[in-house]
Amino acid sequence: MRNVKLGVNIDHVATIRNARNEKNPDTVEATRVALSSGADMVVMHLRGDRRHIKDDDLERVRREVKGLIHLEMAATPEMEKIALRVRPDSVCLVPEAPGEVTTQGGLKMTGKLTELERIVRGLSKSGIEVSLFVDPEPQPIRAAHNIGADSVELCTSKYSESWGKKLQAKELETLQLASFLVKELKMGLHAGHGLDYYNVVPVARIEGMDCLNIGYSIISRAVFVGLKSAVTEMKRLMQ
Ligand code: PXP
Fold this sequence. Notes:
Bound molecules: pyridoxine-5'-phosphate
Number of strands: 8
Structural class: alpha/beta
Radius of gyration: 17 Å
Strand content: 15-25%
Order of helices and strands: EHHEHEHEHEHEHHEHEHH
Strand order of the largest sheet: 1-2-3-4-5-6-7-8
């Protein structure tokens, strides 16, 4: 049996909660259910505009739940400060563009390597594992390695959005080739974005895959079957 870890992103539990600006559905409760249903960690993306996860969600989950927290954040001094204070178990540095509905592709590192390296090394020094969200291409993977990241998370958007078997097979091959390089560099191999119950299996089967981070499809399915079943089903598909 493969042991690909599942990080369940609960951003959209907060999106629903924020629709009424009340307490439910509670992100602490969502974390407990996800972790007790087979998730290996809970994932939260604290965005600059705080449109779903708020600082309080992150702090409460850290304080009230025993379990691994994976924080997605932009590489900004503000987020760096929060991460060093709240101390998630791991951080993924992601690009963030104003007005985007969701993350648009991997980090563009040209011209930003010095600042990225400072943040990566600072987080690492404080015991937080660091990954970089990158497109499945050699250049950003090598750059992530050179600045000291422990892992890369390969962006699966193009694969997830590809229409038809032929195109999907091509995007899967791109992910596979990128994975060889990640493993050659002895880095952790993560992947995510747009993965769902129909497209997850081939990505979970990529040799050396350590972890998949999945949010939207799980929370969407949870609306109909409950979070416990939605997480259990996803975890089962990945093994
Ligand atoms: N990985 C990263 C780096 C992301 O930014 C996101 C979205 O927050 C995800 C994974 C999860 O993507 P999805 O919600 O499409 O499953």
